[in-house]
Design goal:
Elements: E1 2-5, H1 6-17, E2 24-29, E3 35-39, E4 58-60, H2 71-81, H3 86-92, H4 98-108, H5 112-134, E5 136-143, E6 149-153
Parallel strand pairs: 1-5
Antiparallel strand pairs: 2-3, 2-4, 5-6
């Protein structure tokens, strides 16, 4: 089982998240745990393996849409934290530019920071589940349970 640093996974996920699906891609090498980034918009500047897109040695880091972390997550948040706004949010997501309007609504309800915390927790949980499904072990740099500096597994 390959291991990857959880922070490397988060950074790769954020890179993928900055663009629509398939414009920014991140891959994890299942042999080494190394991550590779590729963008359709501009060169990243790192040498990429020739078989990155075709080999089963690499797995693509999912886009938030692949993990249900877009509109569905926003609607779950509103239904659980601001149920009085559910109909308004449903309407917001029927048009383009929805997330901008969604965040403006949350700002007006003093709930934007709660949304960011909710979104972060959901993304981390989804990525942990995804890694488990892919057979990827997560490691976290920092202090292990015994108080020693170094690398420890992430639960």
């Amino acid at each position: 089982m390959v291991a990857i640093d959880f922070q490397d996974l988060i950074e790769s996920f954020e890179f993928v998240s900055m663009a629509p699906p398939c414009e920014n891609c991140a891959y994890i090498c299942l042999d080494t745990g190394r991550t590779y980034w590729k963008s359709e918009l501009e060169p990243i500047g790192e040498e990429l393996p020739d078989d990155l897109d075709t080999s089963d040695r690499f797995v693509m880091v999912p886009h938030p849409d692949d993990l249900g972390l877009g509109r569905e997550l926003a609607q779950r948040f509103v239904r659980s934290k601001l149920p009085e706004c559910a109909a308004e949010v449903d309407e917001i997501f029927r048009r383009k530019g929805a997330f901008s309007r969604f965040k403006n609504l949350l700002r007006s309800k003093s709930a934007l920071e709660r949304w960011y915390d909710y979104e972060t927790e959901a993304a981390e949980r989804a990525l942990r589940d995804w890694c488990r499904d892919q057979g990827i072990q997560l490691i976290e740099r920092g202090v292990d349970p015994g108080g020693q500096r170094g690398i420890s597994p992430v639960p």
